[in-house]
Amino acid sequence: LSAILGDAINLGLTKMAESSPGLTYAKLSWLQAWHIRDETYSAALAELVNHQYRHAFAAHWGDGTTSSSDGQRFRAGGRGESTGHVNPKYGSEPGRLFYTHISDQYAPFSTRVVNVGVRDSTYVLDGLLYHESDLRIEEHYT
């Protein structure tokens, strides 16, 4: 979990190893190389979504057949003009967009990192068709 936490809070493996007794950079690096990839994050997310989907209380929010999606933009340092990425909504300011699909049970079943130079609407179908959860989405809102 330390390698995942270091990734999640953008601390990095070196500082995570220094702040975690009994862990070394070599061990965290090995764990990250062998186990922490986009595919493993997607599989873990699917397991969490499936567990919530099957929980009786989740039915109070919805039946898991409706979803919505939207992007959340985060600014990045540097100059965007040099990359040539220009977005009509955000201009040439550098950054990343996290495009997330969420079910009517409030489970985020798909998240993609999108360059701000690309329209986020091009990722709507990716999240609906290629998520690994057991949700059967019949209706979607953007």
Record the SSE blueprint.
Elements: H1 2-8, H2 13-19, H3 25-35, H4 38-54, E1 66-75, E2 95-103, E3 108-115, H5 124-129, E4 139-141
Parallel strand pairs: 1-4
Antiparallel strand pairs: 1-2, 2-3
Summarize this, please?
With 142 residues, the chain is an alpha+beta fold. The chain contains five helices and four strands; from the N terminus they run ααααβββαβ. It folds into two domains: 2-35, no CATH class; 60-141, no CATH class.
Describe what this molecule looks like in 3D.
By secondary structure, the chain is an alpha+beta fold. It has 2 domains: 2-35, no CATH class; 60-141, no CATH class. It has helices at 2-8, 13-19, 25-35, 38-54, 124-129; strands at 66-75, 95-103, 108-115, 139-141. Strand 2 (95-103) and strand 3 (108-115) form a beta hairpin. The radius of gyration is 18 Å and the shape is flat.
Supply database-style keywords.
Transposase, alpha+beta, 5 helices, Tn3_Tnp_DDE_dom, 34% helix, flat, four-stranded mixed β-sheet
Query: What's the β-strand tally?
Result: 4
Distance between the termini: 34 Å
- DSSP strand (E) fraction? 15-25%
Largest sheet: number of strands, sense, barrel closure = 4 strands, mixed
Question: Major sheet: order of its strands?
Answer: 3-2-1-4
Number of helices: 5
Structural class: alpha+beta
Radius of gyration over C-alpha positions, nearest whole angstrom: 18 Å
Shape: flat
Whole-number mean pLDDT? 87
Q: What order do the SSEs take from the amino end to the carboxyl end, as H and E? A: HHHHEEEHE
Spans with pLDDT under 50 lasting ≥5 residues? none
Give the total of domains.
2
* Helical coverage, percent range: 25-40%
